[in-house]
Amino acid sequence: MQANLPSLGTENQSPYQVESRREIIALLRGFKDKSQLISMVINNGGEAFITSVLAVDDSNNQIIIDSAPDHSANQRVVASNVVFFDGLLDKISIQFSANKLQQTQYEGRAALSLAIPNSVIRLQRRENYRINTPVSTPIRCVIPIESEGLLEKNRFNLVDISAGGIAILDDRRILDMTVGKIYDDCEIDLPTIGLLVTQLEIRNSQELTLLNGKTTRRVGCAFKNLSNRTLTAVQRYIMKLERERNARLTGI
């Protein structure tokens, strides 16, 4: 039976389990073909690493993925009884688990292998699907944080955005991670859309280790008391990102 994955998103989802082997392999190969990164989570969400699918070997029932950034991290992954995976593919979160991973080699470099799962969970975004924001031109979110009686404006990079909220990177770990903590007068400058001012509520957080070995904290925030005008602006921006993404895929 597949275990429940730690929640990595900003909104509630309805799970859909996929058990067709052909479809599972197609989804996994989609991560490889589209170079989509996946979160690899151990210790019930206590530690996470960013990885990617290097190969899907149907005949040997194996997936080959990038190894963790250092030997000790790999040892912890291999020693884990259950490893969870969560990745975004075509606006849909694909989640699955593996009981044991093994260290291996792929094209002369260190890698990890795991069995192709018997089932995956596909979390279909409906009106509130999230979409990744551009890495090449990061979107900034400015959050006022009180320090010694003064409000200081601090900048954070967006990871993704939906009509329900955002995910940001807190590299310096300066945000209060109390679930339900609300930050007022947060500013998000969306290209071609304009400056949005909103309340943000802390919903979840997770420590991530990136492929380069750098660690960061991913923070899921929900919009609070979003006006219809601001919601429309967010939806326009999501549509803009979707059009740009589709243009890249089709080569237009």
From TrEMBL:
Q: What gene does the UniProt entry assign to this protein? A: ycgR
Role description: Acts as a flagellar brake, regulating swimming and swarming in a bis-(3'-5') cyclic diguanylic acid (c-di-GMP)-dependent manner. Binds 1 c-di-GMP dimer per subunit. Increasing levels of c-di-GMP lead to decreased motility.
Protein's name according to its UniProt entry = Flagellar brake protein YcgR
Matching entries from InterPro entries are given as:
PilZ_domain, Split_barrel_FMN-bd, T3SS_YcgR, T3SS_YcgR_PilZN
* Residues covered by the Type III secretion system flagellar brake protein YcgR PilZN domain: 16-122
The source's domain of life comes to Bacteria
Stretches assigned to the PilZ domain: 124-239
Outline the subunit composition: Monomer. Interacts with the flagellar basal bodies.
Main localization of the protein?
other
Annotated compartments: Bacterial flagellum basal body
Q: Which UniProt keywords apply?
A: Bacterial flagellum, c-di-GMP, Cell projection, Cilium, Flagellum, Nucleotide-binding
Which family does the record assign? Belongs to the YcgR family.
